[in-house]
TrEMBL record:
The keyword Phosphoprotein applies. The modification 4-aspartylphosphate is found at residue 54. PANTHER family: HTH-TYPE TRANSCRIPTIONAL REGULATOR YHJB-RELATED. It holds the Pfam family Response_reg. Residues 2-119 form the Response regulatory domain. The keyword DNA-binding applies. InterPro entries: CheY-like_superfamily (IPR011006), EvgA-like (IPR051015), NreC/VraR/RcsB-like_REC (IPR058245), Sig_transdc_resp-reg_C-effctor (IPR016032), Sig_transdc_resp-reg_receiver (IPR001789), Tscrpt_reg_LuxR_C (IPR000792). GO terms for biological process: phosphorelay signal transduction system; regulation of DNA-templated transcription. It comes from Brucella pituitosa. This is Flagellar transcriptional regulator FtcR. GO terms for molecular function: DNA binding. Residues 142-207 form the HTH luxR-type domain. Keywords: DNA-binding, Phosphoprotein.
C-alpha cells in the first residue's frame, strides 16, 4: 500500500509513520512537510491508497486545501489530522470529502483504528464528538454549493484562487481557453456569484473558518 503523510511537524510525522508501520499490510510511506509538496505528490502519483493531511501546514489553506486535493484525485481517501477536536471542522471536512478525522492527541491504537476503517471504505470520526451539534447554516450552504461542482470545475475554482489566468488554467488542464471560460461561468452560476473574485472569497471562507477553529 502507498501512504502520504503531509504534516509540518517531524515528531508527529514520526508518530503517524510508526502507526502506519504497525499495520499488517506492507506499505510505502511518503512524507512531506508543506502543502505544495503534498499537492505535487497527489498530481504525480495515482497509486496512493491514503493521504493523511494536516490542515495548517505551510502553504495550506484549511479545508480549501482539502477541496484542492480532492479535485485533483476525487477517489483518494483523505484523513485530516488536526490539533483540534472542533465538531464543526470535523463535520465540514467530511462534507467536503474527507474520509476521516484524527486529533493529534489520538493514541496509536486510535490512529490505527481510523486508518483501518478508511482503507476498508468507511468514514471514521472521533466517537466522542457529536457532529449533529455542529451546525453553521451559512458555511453549510456554501459547502453544499461547492459540492455541486464537478471535479474539473473545482480544479478551475482552486486555480482561480491561486491567481491563474484563463490561459494558464487552459495550459494546466490541457483544454482550450473557451472551455476554461465555460467552466468559470458554470462555477460562478453554481456558487451564486457574479465575479471570479467573489468565487475566490467564498472558497477562502472555508479555509479561514477552519484555521480559526484550529487556532482557538
Amino acid at each position: 500500500m502507498q501512504f502520504i503523510i503531509a504534516d509540518d511537524h517531524p515528531l508527529f510525522r514520526g508518530a503517524l509513520r510508526q502507526a502506519l508501520s504497525s499495520l499488517p499490510e506492507e506499505a510505502e510511506i511518503l512524507e512531506v512537510g508543506d502543502f505544495d509538496a503534498a499537492k505535487k505528490l497527489v498530481v504525480e502519483r495515482d497509486d496512493i491508497d491514503l493521504l493523511l493531511l494536516d490542515l495548517t501546514m505551510p502553504g495550506g489553506t484549511g479545508l480549501s486545501g482539502l477541496v484542492t486535493l480532492k479535485a485533483l484525485q476525487p477517489a483518494l481517501p483523505v484523513i485530516i489530522v488536526s490539533g483540534t477536536d472542533d465538531a464543526a471542522t470535523i463535520r465540514h471536512a467530511v462534507e467536503l470529502g474527507a474520509s476521516g478525522f484524527i486529533s493529534k492527541s489520538a493514541s496509536m491504537e486510535t490512529i490505527g483504528e481510523a486508518v483501518h476503517a478508511v482503507i476498508a471504505g468507511d468514514i471514521w470520526t472521533p466517537s466522542d464528538i457529536d457532529l449533529d451539534q455542529a451546525h453553521d447554516p451559512e458555511i453549510e450552504a456554501l459547502i453544499n454549493k461547492i459540492r455541486t461542482l464537478t471535479p474539473q470545475q473545482t480544479r478551475v475554482l482552486t486555480m482561480l484562487a491561486e491567481g491563474l489566468l484563463n490561459k494558464q488554467i487552459a495550459y494546466e488542464l490541457n483544454v482550450s481557453e473557451a472551455t476554461v471560460k465555460a467552466h468559470v461561468s458554470a462555477v460562478l452560476q453554481k456558487l451564486g456569484v457574479d465575479s471570479r473574485t467573489q468565487a475566490v472569497i467564498l472558497l477562502s471562507r472555508i479555509g479561514s473558518d477552519a484555521l480559526t477553529s484550529e487556532a482557538s
